[in-house]
Each structure stands twice: as C-alpha cells, then as structure tokens.
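Weekend entry, working from home. Most of the wet-lab plans are on hold until the incubator is repaired, so I used the time to fold the two sequences that have been sitting in the queue since the last round of cloning. Logging both here for the record. First:
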Amino acid sequence: MSAALFPLDEAEADAIAELFNIGMGQPAAALSDMLGEEVHLSVPALSVSSRARIAGEVGPETEGTVCAVREAFSGPFAGEAMLIFPERGGLALVRRLIPGEGDTPGADEQDALTEIGNIILNGCLASFANLIEGEIEGGVPDYRAGPAGQLIGAADDPVLFVRIDVALAAGDARGHALFLLDIASLDAFRLAIRRMMEGMG
C-alpha cells in the first residue's frame, strides 16, 4: 500500500492495532461471562481497502447470508463498526442464550444478536474513548441480514479497515468485528493515536 494512501508509520500502525486489541478485550470478556464460554479474538489486522474489496474477502468466508449488527460512530474521527457472522454461526451464538429451533434467526434471536453486538461494539468504542481521552459517540446498533456485499457496501472509496476475527471456543460460531474508518477522518485519527502514544511514553 502506497504511503499516499496509507500515511501511517510502523509505530502508529502498531499503536492502532494495540488500541483495538485493548478495546476489544473487555467486551469480549463480558460476552464470555454472559455465554459461559471463552471468546477468542485474533490479532487486529490493519489495512487500507474499500467496501467492495472487504465484502469480496468476507463474503466467501461467510457462505451466503450473514447476520450483522452495525453501528455508526463519530467524534474526533468517524466511521462504522460491524459485528458480522454467517447466519448459521449467528444462530449458534444466540442458542447459548435462547434455546430454540429453526434455521434462521427469528425476532428473539435478532434481539439477542443485537444485544451481543451492542456489548462488543459499544464496549470497544467506550474503551477507545478512554484510551484517547476523547469523546466518541456511537449510534443505535441495528440488526440486518443479507449477502455480505449488501450489508458492507460496494463503494470503491478507500477506508482504513481493521478486522478482528471472533470465535467461540467450541468452534461453531465464527465471525468478524469490522471497523471502517473514513479516510477523511484519518488525520484526526492519527492525531488521537499520537497523543495516546505520548501519554504512554
């Protein structure tokens, strides 16, 4: 990726990855307590991409219809956070909380998935706000289902993309936490990261 599109040095990129790593840790622990099962997180992967390319990468992994909880956020920087699971994996996740039958999420399952998304996404954004000593406002998380391309989008405009794989220990529920940061907000994001790095120094 060219420096013009991705103007972050190695220290900044490492700090951003660590920011997301810390930010996801507490809500993942809360979800683990709720489900009574360990929640595994991958190391955050950071890149500049586009919604079309991201959908192309995530779509084949999720095999058709996906369940997604999405939340827009704003503050020093703006973007969208998304917790996304294959439909079967989303059902496996909520079955820990709501016993039932059926191959697609009903209203109760959708509400449960929205609450899980709320815990993960809002918890992560709240942790970000504390770490950068700034205010980040999140919208109301909303549940949607459909093809990955439809939910993520097909725009070719570049976004700063952070992906964290999320999986239950049993292996039957695997999904992704996706964070898409508007490139127009990148300078503000870099400034917030630098201030955080200075405060940790």
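Second, folded right after the first finished:
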Amino acid sequence: MSSSTAHTTSGRDPRLDLFRGLANWAIFLDHTPHEILSWLTVRNYGFSDAADLFVFISGYTAALVFLRILREKGYGAAAARILKRVFQLYAAHLGVLLVYVCAILWVSYVSGDPDDVYQFNVAAFTEAPLRAVGHALLLTYKPVNLDVLPLYIALLAAFIPGMWLLARNPSLALALSLGLYLASRSFGWNLPGVAAGVWFFNPFTWQFLFFLGAWVGFGAARPFESILRSDVVFWIALGVLGLTLAIALRAQFGVLPAWIPNPFDPAHKTNLAPSRIVHFVALALVANNLLRPDSSVLRWRALAPMIACGKRSLPVFCSGVVLSFCAHSLIELGSNALWVQLTVGLAGLALMTTVAYALAGRIKPMALRTG
C-alpha cells in the first residue's frame, strides 16, 4: 500500500477498512471446517492468507495512529494509548475465549459427542479447569482458532519500544526486525505454549510483517514509490502470483514434486516462511496498483458490508470466531450437505455485518490519518 496515497481528503484510506473486512470474512470462512465458501479465500491459491493481511494492516494502522500521537503529544502519551489498546485486546480475547469454550462444551454435552472438545483443544477445561484458566490468563493456552488476538497483543506491546525507533530511524527499525525474524527462524525461538509447546503464530517471526506494515504506514516507502508502481514490478508481482498459484493448486491435489516444500505445511505458517512474505508482498503490490484510494470501486454498494466490517474490526472478528464454531456445528448436523454449508456461511457473514452496522451508531471509529 502506498504511503503517500494512504489517505483521502477525509483523512482515512477506505482500502484499510475494505481489506480488514475482507480479512475478517476470510478468517471466519477459513475457521469453519467443511465450509464450501472457504474455497473463495486466498489461502487456497497461494502461500499467504488472511492472517498475513491482518498482521500487515495492524502494523500499518498502528503507525498511522500511534506515531501521530507521538508527534503531537509525545512518546509517553503514545505508549499509554498503546497499553490501553493492549488491555482492551486482552480483555476481548478472554471474553471470546470464555464464550467459545462454553459454546463448545454445551454443544458437546447436548449432542453427547465429545469429539469437538478434543478437536478444538478445550478438553483442559474439563480435566483441569483451574490450570486451564491460569494458562489462558498467561496466553500460553489457546483453543483452536483463538491464536490471532494473542499474536496481535504481543505485536502491539512490542510496538511500544519499536515505535520510538521507527520514528527516529525507520530503516534501522525494519533492519532490526528482519534480523530478529532471521535469527528466530535459525535458532527456533518462540514463546512457550500448552499442548503444542509453542505459540502457533510465532511472534518473533510474525513481527516482521507487522513492522513492515508499520514501516510503510510511517511513510518510509515513499522514496521507492516510482519503482513499486512501475510496470516492471507490477508484471514481476503478477508472475510471482501465477507461479505460486500453480504450486498451490498442485499441492491441493497432491501432485507436488518432492523437491518443492508444501506451502500448506503448518510449520510454514507458524514461523512465517519467506514464501508467505513473498506471496503477500506480490499481492499487496498488485492490489495497490489496481485499487487506488480514490477508486470508484470503493463506493460500490456491494462492498459496503465488507467496509463496515472493517470499520468495526475487533467486535466483528470476535463474533466471527464464535460464529465459526456455530457454523461448524450446524454443518455437522446437516451431514455436510452443500446447501447447509452455503446457508450457514452466508448467514455467518450476514451476522458479522449486522454486528458492524449495529455498532456503527454507538462507537466512534478511530481516525486513521497520516498527519
């Protein structure tokens, strides 16, 4: 995303809301097992997915919001605002975890089927509930599909010192972030976690995508805009997307040559494989060239629900996590019938959109301005 065109006359880039809404919708669909609509998401056709988009945009908006506060009110005020946001995210995560776990346990009890308790990694709450609560409070225990918010919490907390350096020497900040990324991949650094032993999203590697977004949001990419928007770079990015599409499709059908790493290996996501970064950057370059902030496409009524979900990203995301399990339960009750998959998928997106519109009149969105 171009930093110089990252805002309109209203001070807010509508593409941010569009892509955050898109990420929320895609995460909901991808988190719902046996959901036919998940084949519409990018994860099936390349190396990156909605998580990469979510982390990059989180870094981008963090730079826009908190670096502006730093310039206007000082480092202390900006750090205080970040801490407040971190606690808000922490509270939201614990609230979602409580509802999510209760929903899984209740459905398992009513149906008499304990499979979901183990499939979604909530058995700890039945076997050792006090220990599970303690690990949950420390963010070392996370049920399946509840890994994104803890990652965001860790990355935003790391932005407190990172913001100070980014404001003074953005290139050095990005270089140090890259160094940490490479070191953590080389030495296997990660935070401890229950069950798997480590966090599913390694914050030491995923921080690079976050700080890359912050680096762009800060405006450090401006000197390279003429290059990034050139036809040569555009066609190279398209070529990368075409190559990754071919590899992803071959992997989906199990015909990938042994010498090519499987892009759907969970370890590639945990440690943010370089191939994911390359694919995401190629996507971002193509999107930035095809969709400008003043594009008439952004005013299409068909995109309004997605943009609304992007404006209320946190509550929409939280509702989507719970709805993904509800959708999974209904699909199982419907014996994976195609019409059930379509119905619950569309209903889930509609409910997320309803949450966004219901909150629109009561919550003032945070202004995203570049200065």
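Plan for Monday: verify the second prediction. Residues 14-360 form one domain.
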